Amino acid sequence: MSENKEKEMNILGVEELIGEVHEKEIQVIAFRLGDELVSVPIEQVVEITSNRDITPVPKAPSYVIGVMNLRGKIVPVVNLKEHLGIPSEVPEDIYQNNRIVILDTPKGEVGVIVDEIVGSIKFPETEILPEPIGTIGIDVKFITGVVQLDGDLLIILNIESIFNKEE
Amino acid sequence: MKVNIPDELREILDEFLVEAAEILENLDQDLVDLENNPEDKELLNKIFRGMHTLKGGAGFLNLTPIVEIAHRIEDIFNKLRNDELKLTPDIMDVILEGIDQLKISLEMLRDNFELPDMEDIEPLLKKLDAVLKGETPEGGSSETSSSSDTSDSEDIEFIDGISDALKELIKKYPGKDLAQILEEIILLPPDQRPMEVIPEIEKLIEEGKDVKDLIKKKEKKEEQKSQETQQQQQQSQPQQPAQTQPVSPQQAPKPSTPTAAKKTSTATKKQEKKTSETIRVDVERVENLMNLVGEIVLDRNRILRVTADVEKECRSESVEKLVEAVTSLDRTVSDLQVAVMKLRMQPIKKIFSKFPRLVRDLARKLNKKVQLIIEGEDTELDRSILDKLEDPLIHLVRNALDHGIEPPEERIAKGKPEVGTVRLFAYHEGDHIIVGIQDDGRGIDPEKVKQKAIEKGLITPEQAAQMSDKEAYELIFMPGFSTAEKVSDVSGRGVGMDVVASTIHALRGSIEIESEPGKGTTILLKLPLTVAIIRTLMIGVNSQVYAVPLHSVVEVVRYNENLVKDVGSFRSFMLREEVLPLFSLNELLELPDKNDKHFVVIVKVGEKYIAVSIEDLLGEEEIVIKSLGELLADIQGIAGATIAGDGRVVLILDLNSLLSDYKVKLLGTGAKK
């Protein structure tokens, strides 16, 4: 997706219009899942919210915590850690006390529970490195790449493959 | 053939596609009507105009294959309405083939921006041209040639090996094929019936021979013609076995298969089609409006509650004014709600109109005689229900024709009218719509159904013995059940009755079967008026609130430990004289159970009553149903969600599907006692 977008922008010459920077800048929203610092491209983030009432959904897959009301829309809330295979324990008060990032996914808007919102980070696209196999606790197919920040490894999640249409 | 539509014409193309689809949809109904009233000038004019519009639109967009076909059909109808041509079933077959090709072309265009290649439609165009020139596809549909046929019949030369009696018959019934001659023989009084010929004819039919194979060809020209005819027949009805040759011209005025819908057509004719002014609106916009109104309704409920509280707490002039304004708002919002709901309502005609054609084609294919009666086609239903209703209805009508209605001979033998009747009807009943299909065919034999279910391992013989007829009919809806002895081209298409049942249940409707062996079957679908707003019972388990649609609830009673009995592997609840299987909602939802029950909800699942114990009862509420989204679309037992007055999400339970897992096991509860 983002690759296509980039191509499009190149064709349209938008890059030149932005300024002298020939490298495309990527902006992500970063948050913590356990020990991992992960992020999602800002275009895919709909909203960041907290302390929502979540209604549990019986018989749903275990990674689904429940559903919430986002301005009249029903949005599922997912335990991203479990979905990604990061060991996690769901605190009992998760249904009232939570931090949620609402993402735009192939399966519609989905809220993901995060441990801590870090903020928005910008970096040139060229700094994205291929995913180092085995060094992090997340399946590589869910990752677009990593960026080396001072002292921390920022993981960029691939929302398309996490919320895959076919699954 | 790829079609290149410049961007600036895209919008026009979209409009054309919508309009063309509408024209063709109406056409099916009109054409079948026309076959029964070939002289109806108004109908002829209407079809002509439709084709003209289609041709014009396609011409503007340079869609040559569509133009070519539409142009010829338009010309044929021009001749028909000017009495230069007479409509016969064979001409109709060619026209229908043309219409089908138009539909296919439009679909290709819509889905892939493609059109069929001109070579591919060349045979069809030739056929249409032939019709136009008056060379009707069947050797002699025009009166002149048919009369010459009769005069010829005196000196027909037969090939060797044909009995004299059969020769006699062929001369006696000129223009009829063997199957039709056989039919004529059967119709004769028994003492005149030449019994010895019947096996001979049957043998010939089995060998794939027909009258023309038995006659020595006289002229080369005629031979060509008959070959051409044969080809065309084969093309137009590829799946038709040899013995079901299309009705020959002499028979045309005599009502055959498509006698059908005669009543329908007269009935529909009475209701002159209103031409009211309309605008086309994207469904998504209506949907969006509906959602917003749903939100307003919820907000109104909240405001009403708060206002009532305010009124209790303090009394002042401004509070009174507030109450007044809120009361007025309340009324307006209710009206708004109804108005928007009406926006989504469409007459069931939209899908009923497809059936005359379907029944006609099917009847011809199955070699059965069927008349279709449509009633209540103006009954309005929510659009989303309407869309989902089409496939189940098609399936049920197919079943009625395939398994219900007997072949003409069998019907005559049983003393029934030769032409079977299928009635398709719709009407209001309270806040529900009933859509039904009735046939006067074989009916369903409950014992056969049970037998089949035992064979398929769906039930045990002990269970079968305990089952009422109604319960036996319910078995038809179980996955893995199909009464058809052989999978036919018509019914056995993979979608079984279980799919029909689950579709109807998903619409929060129910199905009822009434059948009398030998007399026929009626299937009633009970559907809600709208899908968007439903009345629910708010209940609580495990300190969560759930909404249960009221349509599935029979009654609610207080929980009483003394009325609970352990029977077999299930618990049961004594309600008055009856023993009902009892479940706790917690176990159905796979939630921890605190055993702190206060109420029991009695629900009807199929023909059975089932008791479900719950913790709290919070009252009745009208709610706007919302989908849980794609991620959670497939969770069994949860029909959707709504947003409660306090902004929290409340899940809507579908008890029917929650219990369906237990349904099979439940059949055994009686037997295990």
Structure description:
The complex is a heterodimer of chains A (167) and B (673). Chain A has 167 residues and is mostly beta strands. Chain A is built from four helices and ten strands; from the N terminus they run ααβββββαβββββα. In chain A, the strands form two sheets. Chain A has a five-stranded mixed beta sheet. Chain A starts with a helix and ends in a 5-residue tail after the last helix. The model of chain A is unreliable at 13-19 (pLDDT under 50). Chain B is an alpha+beta fold and 673 residues long. In chain B, the strands form four sheets. Chain B has a six-stranded mixed beta sheet with strand order 10-14-15-13-12-11. Chain B has a five-stranded mixed beta sheet with strand order 2-4-5-7-6. In chain B, strands 16-8-9-18-17 form a five-stranded mixed beta sheet. In chain B, a hairpin with a 2-residue loop joins strand 8 and strand 9 (544-549). In chain B, helix 8 (178-187) packs antiparallel against helix 9 and helix 16 (355-366) runs parallel beside helix 17 (383-404). Residues 138-154, 217-226, 232-274, 483-494 and 668-673 of chain B have low confidence and may be disordered. Classes of the chains: A mainly beta (167), B alpha+beta (673).
